[in-house]
Automatic annotation (TrEMBL):
It is an enzyme of class 1 (oxidoreductase). The chain crosses the membrane at residues 123-144, 165-185, 289-315. InterPro entries: Cbr1-like_FAD-bd_dom (IPR008333), FAD-bd_FR_type (IPR017927), Flavodoxin/NO_synth (IPR008254), Flavoprot_Pyr_Nucl_cyt_Rdtase (IPR001709), Flavoprotein-like_sf (IPR029039), FNR_nucleotide-bd (IPR039261), OxRdtase_FAD/NAD-bd (IPR001433), PepSY-ass_TM (IPR005625). One of its GO terms (cellular component) is cytosol. PANTHER family: NADPH--CYTOCHROME P450 REDUCTASE, NITRIC OXIDE SYNTHASE-RELATED. Pfam families: FAD_binding_6 (PF00970), Flavodoxin_1 (PF00258), NAD_binding_1 (PF00175), PepSY_TM (PF03929). Residues 484-597 form the FAD-binding FR-type domain. Keywords: Flavoprotein, FMN, Membrane, Transmembrane, Transmembrane helix. SUPFAM superfamilies: Ferredoxin reductase-like, C-terminal NADP-linked domain, Flavoproteins, Riboflavin synthase domain-like. GO terms for molecular function: flavin adenine dinucleotide binding; FMN binding; sulfite reductase (NADPH) activity. This is NADPH--hemoprotein reductase. Residues 335-468 form the Flavodoxin-like domain. The lineage of its organism: Bacteria, Pseudomonadati, Pseudomonadota, Betaproteobacteria, Burkholderiales.
């Protein structure tokens, strides 16, 4: 069973009962807070003897004095045959008012401890605590996998509102929740009798009657040397039994004191089990520190949020679960397709490949990568593998590589197709390792490894052409990706750039659509977005989205993109043909690797042409004026200096620190953007030495040119673009 399965099934089933414990725990956390405000706490260094002396002056028939975890002092006595419990002021022993163990109804406690089911319920509650401990442990493993290790643990979380709620709250409360489960188990261990807390028998201690009068409390040496901070409770010797003793319970143990001599007659040290139990009670209830009780209460209530968001996530995943149609049985299949996918999109590509191969008369079987094997009938194997975290396999396939590495190589070609995102330092890292392993083991392949960037249908189609050629069969891979739920966006502003001899371009601004909370919870409607994320647009008559980098974030209140006319481009033609008030069908795709981290480090923004769009978005939101330096490359400032007036304004406002332009088609324009970088080598080295973060956006050739220029610039620092990428300081958005 995988961690994901453990987390999902325990969370869904036992999680519903944990909600009861969490919510009742949150209610119970009110008690310590209330107690803390009801009476003053005794000073910790006050000698117990002094306290007792003060109390007995005002309540002479006191039987027991308790030092509550809140620090308050309560005295128990009898008025007639009526037991009484009152708060007293430790400063002078004055009675402050009646004390009640709890203001909450008893059933809340019983529900929390035993689900109102008596002893059987206590076992149940212990089982739930154990299950919740497992849910927390699996949550940590999944969190680390999802975020890509400890270092990225605090990185921005993407996904539907439910996913973000689940993960973000999880990051905050996971430690406290784990602690609560552990302490609940520790407490259960004693209530269920798994461990004995005390020594079992009490010593037979009696006061030695000497004929002397009993000593007043203030003169008892043992109590004089004892501080109130250690005191739990003190029993006053009874008036009717001359051999009765003072009994004092502290955090360290229990003692019996002779009422005539003040000698300590016996001392029973607290057992280790008792001390562990005491600590567990404090941590689980917060009864000795009300701020901790507040934390526990909030964390208890958050269990409900977790469970609800978890159910929504499970339901969303179920809807998106891969369903491969037309699968032939494994033993008869000519072609086997193995898939490693976390988010599910790679399964869609596998289905497209399967659907294209079947009309060629091939029987195809598609399965998850962990099932990798070949049979006597197999003629071709394709592995479609996504990468996660720092070059890791999707969770379900985490052991597949080790298994494949142990298999004896067959003669059947195994071709790997990677799915990834160039913004991650380990682009298609898992597919690459998998491919290397297969080759090292001696498996042949039909085609060399190809890595698909950002689920590009176009790149997949090109790989399909190569495959058709290698197979010698007519094969077309037309992948229609499953797109998230879409939203209609209305155009509210456009700025046109006449390309002259070149293509026309426009900056298009769409209104941000209002959406209901229910939609956001289900991940419907327009997802949250920031500059640098992508908007997928579905042009009329096509189910294949085209992606554009966003030049604005949600905080800006609108959605802006920069679109260049592509020759014969269905989507760019559609977009450039829009009039104000027209609308498009769109959805957001996160681009987490490109987002700017929240630091004060300098930022180098390098973009050419429409690639300046996400960089403009970063500058627009630079409210804190962190140092940002823009290198912009265009052809002619009169035609394609996109966002030009905005950039000048941001420069004047201090949102942009320096601007460096390079225009390749005008005399003395400065050439290409990489030329500008070379010219500024000294300043760039200085910025990088100060920890600068680099973001590059533009065409592939430009990105390559920038890499070469920066490699040369950084060489004297013994640094390279690859090293900056590996330390997540350099990211590209390439189109
Ligand atoms: C949290 C997260 C981490 C990722 N890490 C990497 C990575 O390290 N390398 C990479 O090439 N792609 C990475 N990607 C991109 C995915 O591999 C890519 O989007 C892939 O197409 C997803 O396929 P799937 O939906 O089948 O899981 C990551 C995506 C996410 C959401």
């Amino acid at each position: 069973m995988t961690w994901k399965a453990i987390h999902r099934w325990l969370g869904l089933t036992v999680g519903s009962l944990a909600v009861v414990l969490g919510v009742t725990g949150a209610v119970l956390a009110i008690d310590p807070v209330q107690q803390a405000w009801q009476a003053p706490a005794a000073p910790g260094d006050l000698p117990v003897a002094t306290l007792v002396d003060r109390v007995l002056r005002t309540v002479p028939d006191a039987e027991e004095i308790r030092h509550l975890p809140s620090g308050a002092i309560v005295v128990f006595s009898f008025v007639g045959d009526q037991p009484q419990a009152s708060y007293v002021d430790p400063a002078d022993g004055r009675v402050l008012g009646a004390w009640q163990a709890s203001a909450l109804p008893r059933w809340v406690k019983n529900l929390h401890r035993s689900l109102l089911l008596g002893d059987a319920g206590r076992w149940g509650a212990a089982g739930i605590a154990l299950a919740m401990g497992l849910v927390c442990a699996s949550a940590l493993v999944l969190l680390l996998r999802r975020m890509g290790g400890w270092r990225r643990l605090t990185a921005r979380v993407r996904g539907s509102l439910a996913q973000r709620l689940h993960v973000v709250t999880g990051r905050v409360v996971l430690v406290v929740l784990s602690l609560t489960s552990l302490t609940a188990l520790t407490m259960s261990a004693s209530t269920l009798g798994w461990v004995a807390l005390d020594a079992g028998t009490e010593p037979d201690a009696l006061s030695v009657v000497t004929g002397q009068p009993a000593l007043p409390a203030a003169q008892l040496a043992t109590l004089q040397g004892m501080a109130v901070r250690d005191l739990r409770k003190l029993n006053v010797p009874g008036t009717t039994d001359p051999e009765d003793t003072w009994t004092v319970a502290t955090a360290q143990g229990q003692g019996w004191i002779d009422r005539y001599s003040g000698q300590l007659l016996a001392w029973q040290q607290a057992t280790v089990a008792q001390r562990v139990y005491d600590l567990a009670v404090v941590l689980h209830t917060g009864e000795s520190a009300w701020p901790w009780a507040v934390v526990l209460g909030l964390v208890g209530a958050s269990v409900l949020l977790f469970w609800l968001s978890g159910v929504v996530i499970w339901w969303q995943a179920r809807r998106q679960a891969p369903k491969i149609t037309g699968n032939s049985p494994l033993a008869q299949a000519d072609v086997l397709i193995y898939v490693a996918s976390e988010g599910g999109s790679t399964w869609g590509f596998a289905q497209t490949l399967q659907d294209a191969l079947r009309p060629l008369g091939l029987r195809v079987h598609t399965s998850a990568l962990e099932n990798f094997q070949t049979t006597a009938a197999t003629r071709q194997v394709f592995v479609l593998a996504a990468t996660y975290g720092e070059g890791q396999a999707p969770a379900h396939a985490s052991h597949a590589l080790a298994r494949i590495a142990k298999l004896k190589a067959g003669a059947v070609p195994v071709t790997v197709l990677g799915f990834g995102d160039r913004q991650f330092p380990a682009f298609c890292g898992f597919a690459k390792v998998l491919d290397q392993t297969l080759r090292a083991r001696g498996w042949p392949s039909l085609l060399p490894l190809e890595c698909i960037h950002q689920q590009s249908s176009q790149q997949f189609a090109r790989w399909g052409l190569a495959l058709a050629q290698a197979l010698g069969k007519p094969l077309v891979l037309e992948h229609v990706p499953r797109v998230p739920s879409t939203t209609t966006l209305t155009l509210i502003e456009r700025r046109d750039y006449n390309g002259g001899a070149g293509p026309a371009t426009a900056i298009l601004r769409f209104a941000w659509p209002a959406q209901r909370l229910g939609e956001r919870l289900r991940g419907q409607g327009l997802a949250r977005f920031a500059a640098g994320d992508l908007v997928g647009i579905l042009p009329p008559g096509s189910a294949v989205p085209r992606y554009y980098s966003l030049a604005s974030g949600q905080q800006d209140g609108f959605l802006e993109i920069c679109v260049r006319q592509m020759a014969g481009g269905l989507c760019s033609t559609h977009l450039l043909g829009l009039k104000l008030g027209d609308s498009v069908t769109a959805f957001i795709r996160a681009n987490p690797g490109f987002a700017l981290p929240r630091t004060r480090r300098p930022v180098l923004l390098i973009g050419a042409g429409t690639g300046v769009a996400p960089l403009a978005g970063f500058i627009r939101r630079n409210d804190r004026h962190r140092p940002m330096h823009l290198y912009f490359g265009g052809r002619d400032p009169a035609r394609d200096f996109y966002f030009g007036p905005d950039i000048q304004r941001w420069l004047a406002q201090g949102r942009l620190t320096t601007l460096h332009t390079a225009f390749s088609r005008v005399p003395d324009g400065g050439g290409y953007v990489q030329d500008a970088l070379r010219r500024d080598a000294e300043q760039l080295r200085e910025q990088v030495a100060r920890g600068a973060i680099v973001r590059v956006c533009g065409g592939r050739a430009m990105a390559q040119g920038v890499t070469e220029a920066l490699d040369a610039v950084l060489a004297p620092l013994q640094l390279s673009v690859a090293q900056l990428k590996a330390s997540e300081r350099y990211a590209e958005d390439i189109f």
